[in-house]
Amino acid sequence: MKEELQYIGEKIVKNNAELANNLSELMYVEYNQKLHQYGIEEYQIMEWRTKLIQYIGESLFKDQKTVTEKITNLATYIGKTIAENGISLKHAIKSISFVRHVIWNVFTEELEQNRFSPITMLSVSKIIDPFLDDICYVFSQIYENQNNKKINIVYTALEELSVPIVPITTGIAVMPIIGEIDTHRSTLIIQTGLAKSVHMELSHLILDISGVQIVDTMVADNLFKLIYSLRLLGVETILTGIRPEIAQTSVKLGIDFRKINTKATLEQALEEIGFRRVLSK
């Protein structure tokens, strides 16, 4: 059987260019158009397909470890290239099914000529199919990593938007905090508050929590940490927007705001800093 596998493998390798052309004819137009649209030349595409078919043929008679490394490296290169150039994972996976089809046409021809037994074909399948499955797995991993990177970029952007610092004038800014504050967001508020206060060279920062529904001991503790840390940096902080229900809850929980400069509204905080409303005559 070893000789039979070698015969089939060598036949695939010898005819890899022809098989690559057959593969191109099977590939749907949209896939090829996308490849060309993003600047991938026809010769590059043919080179990928020729090499891939060659390696699959080699898998039938050469060292499996060496062939695995070749196929993995090629699949990784192709996967990254097509992923970066807008080819969908659906199209990428479907292209492997065409490779399978082209390769098996070779085996069908041999069967029709009664050269090999069905057991030989089964052995061929056991060798080749896992390689094609591995290529699909490599493609899937690449697309998953790419999607994770995109998600992380979007998540980071949303995080930055969730903790904005709005400059009022030189040295003075407002940090409006809206929504639920969990452990992660509390840490983000502290980090952003400290970093941007230093970067913006603030002398005063107003923390407005009028959009926060619940202030528990964890939230209060992190607000205090930010305020005390800013104080060490020379930034005076005023806490505004404590609603009546939050004030009642804070008293019940024993949260002491007496050491913190608090004002009912943003307007009052600005007045304390030195802003006055200018009335038109």
Protein described:
The chain is α/β, with parallel strands linked by helices. The chain is built from eleven helices and five strands. A five-stranded mixed β-sheet has the order 1-2-3-4-5. The longest helix has 45 residues. The protein starts with a helix and ends in an 8-residue tail after the last helix. The model has no long low-confidence stretch (mean pLDDT 83).
User: Termini separation (Å)?
Assistant: 103 Å
**β-strand amount:** 5-15%
Radius of gyration: 33 Å
Number of helices: 11
Strand order of the largest sheet: 1-2-3-4-5
Structural class: alpha/beta
Oligomer: single chain
Uncertain stretches: none
What is the general shape? rod-shaped
Q: Summarize the amount of helix as a percent range.
A: 55-70%
Q: Main beta sheet: strand number and arrangement? A: 5 strands, mixed
Arithmetic mean of pLDDT: 83
Number of strands: 5
SSE order in H/E notation? HHHHHHHEEHEHEHEH
